[in-house]
Design brief:
The chain is 49% helix and 15% strand. The protein is α/β, with parallel strands linked by helices. Helix 1 packs antiparallel against helix 4 and helix 4 (51-71) runs antiparallel to helix 7 (148-170).
Length: 371
Amino acid sequence: MKRRFLVIRWIVGLLFIFSGLIKANDPLGLSYKMQEFFGAWGLNGSLNDYTLALSLIMNVFEVLAGVAVIIGWRMKLFSWLLLLLIIFFTFLTGYALLSGKIKTCGCFGDCLPLTPLESFLKDLFLLLLILVLFVNKNRIVSSLSSPVPQALLIICIAAVSWLQWYVQKHLPVLDCLPYKPGRNIVEEMKVPAGAVPDSFAITFKYKKNGKIVEFGESNFPADFDSTYQYVDRYDKLVKKGNAAAKIVDFSLQTLNGADTTIPILNQGNNYIMLFAKDLSHLDDWKKDMMDVQALAKTKEIPFFLVTGDKDRAVPAFGNNPDLHILVCDGTVIKTAARVNPTYFLMQQGNIKGKWSYADVEDAKKALMQLK
């Protein structure tokens, strides 16, 4: 029996440690996933400012709980915490599965994307194992004596916290996004040959006589009038496809609104794109950016500032003839560049290098090596 409990503890613990670490590698990705859930519930306006903090705390706790379960420390406490956590996770994955509003649940980040069904089944499996540990929590005793467990857990907290600080400044250690070096943006924007995309139908939610009714755009109620109060609209999955493009909605526009995505990405020579979601902390990186631009000019390499903050970019750089401002959706930039801002060294659609503003010296070295 003890051996059985030990195996269960290792399975549960390792899964939580892996889940926490893979998300700690990209805490912003988890915070964006939280915002997606909050948006589906109509809570995005009130909670979006707290999602990063929640993400950081959750990742630390998952690793901490995983280690505590493996060593069997304070099982009365951690069995309760794990049970509550897995019930919450099962609710989230169940909601994603049944509602169709969330395409991936983010359980293992972008490095191991799971479908809502896979995530839900995984959580049901974990729920079963955690229930076994919960029922038998009084029979599990740690073989480690104080202060070894406490020291081990403190080290875990410090290590995961440092990792999350590092990746928020220097980009994820393991880049699992379609914009990682070595990928081709143009190719990633294509749907695989022979693939059938997902089919969605716009679904409206209205309130009528105190009840919520849902209907599609092609089957409005015959008595539809002003007594129907609009609540929400969403895309409902009608038929699941077998593949999709890894990059969607990527678009580069000139200040005049002209789409210049393909001409930019088809350039044969090297060029630099600096992705900056916003320019709120421009003073922190403007001087370094100008140095990179000057170095690029000596190499006859075009320099593009890609931003969603047109209103600040134009006054700041509109008179610089060597810097070309391109406008891109902020959500797309958040995916391409987890750190604001991030340098991309490009040739055609190929991403040859990618550096956070904090690693600008590495970007300069790469430019110096170009012939």
